[in-house]
Design a protein that fits this description.
- By secondary structure, this protein is mainly α.
- The protein has two domains: 49 residues, Homeodomain-like (Arc Repressor Mutant, subunit A), CATH 1.10.10.60; 144 residues, Tetracycline Repressor, domain 2 (Orthogonal Bundle), CATH 1.10.357.
- The protein is built from ten helices and no strands.
- Helix 1 crosses helix 6 and helix 5 crosses helix 8.
- The longest helix has 24 residues.
- The chain is elongated and about 55 Å long.
Length: 201
């Protein structure tokens, strides 16, 4: 793919995500995407064969990142290290893709598409196993559900729009670790970022 074609594709995805967040996937047409870009619908079809293709292309980076998070966590030996790695990775993902995670969390069309993919259901189960552990009690299950749902919903809350990424990350990670009964992370070195300069507890 040429640099120009790649840039055009990325513009389609950026506009599509903005419209998905505003109108939902079902309420967004290819013509709306084309109009927002100032191009013809044929130009959009040149990049993607269908709206479903656009949806998958929009969410693919987040899913790929989540897969890497699961793999990195599962490679740890200690339970606390696994949980710390998953929380840090998911928080990074949420903070880096605020709008996208909010759309994934709330859009019924995306939810339905993801349920149809066994690999995605398996990925979700892997993350859940790391968070809850092999034999969770009721409190752990409830805490895990609260943390997972809250993290994915962060991008929808306008009260957090003014927070810079590192401030939001620090608070999300600290609160998630407390809810899941992990020790607080040590303070980072000057110029460092908590949770990246030290191994999880």
């Amino acid at each position: 793919m040429s640099r120009r074609a790649g840039a055009a594709r990325e513009r389609v995805l950026a506009v599509a995500l903005k419209l998905f967040a505003r109108h939902g996937v079902a309420g967004t047409s290819l013509q709306m995407i084309a109009d927002e870009l100032g191009v013809t619908k044929a130009a959009v079809y040149h990049q993607f064969q269908s709206k479903e293709d656009i949806v998958w292309a929009v969410i693919a980076p987040a899913l790929d990142e989540l897969t890497r998070v699961a793999e990195a966590a599962e490679a740890r030996k200690r339970r606390s290290d696994q949980l710390g790695a998953v929380l840090s990775g998911v928080v990074d993902l949420v903070v880096s893709h605020r709008r996208l995670t909010a759309v994934i969390r709330t859009d019924p069309t995306i939810s339905a598409l993801m349920r149809e993919r066994p690999a995605l259901r398996a990925l979700e189960a892997r993350i859940d196993r790391v968070i809850t552990g092999p034999d969770p009690d009721t409190e752990t299950v409830v805490s895990a559900a609260m943390v997972s749902s809250a993290l994915l919903a962060v991008g929808m809350d306008p009260r957090l729009d003014g927070l810079d990424d590192e401030t939001l990350r620090r608070h999300l990670l600290g609160i998630a670790r407390r809810l899941l009964r992990l020790r607080p992370l040590p303070r980072s070195r000057p110029g460092g970022v908590p949770g990246r300069d030290a191994h999880p507890a």
